[in-house]
Amino acid sequence: MIPYLPGLRDLIVLLVIVVLALLALTVSPQLPLLALSILLAYIVYTRREWILELLYGERVLLLHPALVEFVEVKGRRDHAVIRQAKKTLYAASLRVNDYDPPQNLGRAAERFIASLHNPSTRVSIAARLQEGGYYYYVTMYSEDKHVLREAIASTHRQLLANGVYVQAADPAEFLPHESRLFGLCAPRFTLLAAGILVAVALTHAPLLALAAIPLLPLIPFDLKVARGGETVVVEPLVELEYRSTLADEAAAASAVRVVSTLSMTVPEGAMLLASLAPADIALLEAQARRAMEVLDAARAGVGRLAHEFKAMRIFTLWRRLQEGAAPFHVSLASTPDLARELMKAGFTPKHRSRISALRVLGVLPSYPDIYISHQLAPLSPYAFLRPRTRRTPKAVYLGHGLRKDEEVWLELDLLENVHGLIVGPMGSGKSTTARTLALRALKHGYTPIIIDPSGEYRLWAKAGFEVVDLWDRQLDISRVSPDDLRRAFDYISPLTDYEFLVLKRALEAGKSLWELNMGKLELIKPYFSRATLRVEDLLDSGKPFILCLGSTSSGRYVPIPVEYQRFAVSVMLAMMRDHVIAKGVQEPKWLLIVDEAHLFARPPHREREAEVVTLARMLRKFGLAVILITHDWRDVDETYIRHCGWKLALSHSSPEYVQDTAFYMSLTPAELTWFQRGLRGRAVLRRGFEPHNVLLEIEPEEYAKPEVYSQLA
């Protein structure tokens, strides 16, 4: 090995230029032109694929013809056979479905990449943004079918040990399978070179022949493309260069988070592909020895700064390799939209090419620079996939995700804030979802309490719920504080200071409110004077119940006027607050489901926030979970939207509703496309402890389905 000498390459280039200049002056003035033609020929040769693609388009794939066949085993596609001119490759795919949330993101991402290092196989990974979210594939290639099966099984076990859950996938989901037969065409560069030579012969101008020299390296490839044949067809991708300096877990975790954010801002169809070939450790070891020479020269004061930085990078990678990192040769490519976003994460787009697509798909070998697994952490599934919800002991099942086998759970026992919000216009399935949530929560030990202004939940008396008509079994409003009572009156007719003082003295003295000569009490007397209901008794009974804000004494359900409904709910929430605070801190026990929440989620006159919002903010640790159900985001106080622990938005095609949902749920472009189709049953779940959405289709409980529920009448 030649020892490190700073500036040696620059000195050699300078000597070559001087020699050529002297020859041009003493031998022939045409020599510089010849040298320039040879230099152009070299440049053309190194860019031959790009040049041919500019002229021939997808016919350039004939430079590396390949055919892909899929082999079925037991009725499903098991693996692919890639037939090339001189060899045959076998390929099998895995799809990453889920992963355990990692405690150390950088380490988990690095371990995933390291688990793909297998000396006998090449690997391609692909993250493709489809309807609603990314799909992540790992495809392995080998010239031996048995070696491939062993590698797939080994990788499967390693990923499972690392908390990454995969399953065998159809190779056609990842590999190109459309082939095309191309006929003969004119070899354009060859004809151009021949035309130049003919012109030389006719004009006797030998200098003109120099123009044909840059075309000579293209002729064999030009003839191959013009000859035609059959090959697989792929769309062009943007080749990427990634000059990463990541060498520790913290930096790797940061890079994963950046790519995770950027990857969700692109439209549906975006894709990132990478081809990983195991690198020989001896190559990196040789580079490390060279780096030591550079650093030694730097200590002696004869090194160059650029060489020192490069040497330090190589030496750092070598040390990581000694600690267990895995080395790879890597080729990267992506769709143009994603390439533009990844520029912000250190990826440099080069040219767009179909040959680049073949390389990253693993069909063609590639041997670029060496990377270690720490540097490749942003290519792991942690940057693209979102972890599934968990079936914790108290989790409530909602439905399935984008895939039928993906269960979606509402983990009430993991939420620091258990209060929720369900939003959806008429016909979107709000009531069905609320009934489903209540029934399933009941099975997990929660006690549902439903505030029902319209009486639509009354049929659940046959499903084990106690129905309480608040006009027939009236609340004892004397059990609340004067301040709470004054606040409730703000919904009907605000009390003056004198009226409040009279009311307060009566309550403190234990007098009956109905003995007072106060006109505002006469307004509420028909609905609250026959006090027989204690909210505390209902809560302590442990039975699910429905508080209907109306009466059935006339034989049909008649709702209380809206302002008195608000008064009743205000008083009732105050009673619940006092009771659960007296019980002390405890796990969520009661689920207070407020239907038609637009009636109660706005503050009364002179108040800054509604009682239900205050209740949610105060009682998240006292066993009471508040769930508001409403038609529109604007029906609910902004404070509640910000502070609730989870939000569930039901799909609908209303433009204004979709726009508001995109804002409050931070929908990505792909999620927005999925959501705005307005298919009944689709929903987006966002939980406070996760910075991303879960797309799902609600699977209603049998009794909650409209057609079954209506039969209870």
Mind explaining what this structure looks like?
The mean pLDDT is 83. The protein folds into three domains: 8-46 and 184-227, no CATH class; 66-180 and 234-383, 3-Layer(aba) Sandwich (Vanillyl-alcohol Oxidase, Chain A, domain 3); 415-712, P-loop containing nucleotide triphosphate hydrolases (Rossmann fold, 3-Layer(aba) Sandwich), CATH 3.40.50.300. Strands 1, 2, 3, 4, 5, 6, 9, 10, 11, 12 and 13 form an eleven-stranded antiparallel β-sheet that branches. An eleven-stranded mixed β-sheet has the order 15-14-28-27-26-16-25-24-17-21-18, sandwiched between helices. Strand 2 and strand 3 (88-99) form a beta hairpin. It starts with 7 loop residues before the first helix and ends with a helix. With 713 residues, the chain is α+β, with helices and mostly antiparallel strands. This is AAA+ ATPase domain-containing protein. The chain crosses the membrane at residues 12-45, 189-216. Residues 416-650 form the AAA+ ATPase domain. Keywords: Membrane, Transmembrane, Transmembrane helix. InterPro entries: AAA+_ATPase, HerA_central, P-loop_NTPase, T4SS_component.
Keywords:
T4SS_component, elongated, AAA+ ATPase domain-containing protein, alpha+beta, Vanillyl-alcohol Oxidase, Chain A, domain 3, eleven-stranded mixed beta sheet, 23% strand, 3 domains, membrane, single chain, AAA+_ATPase, 28 strands, 23 helices, Rossmann fold, 713 residues, 38% helix, eleven-stranded antiparallel beta sheet
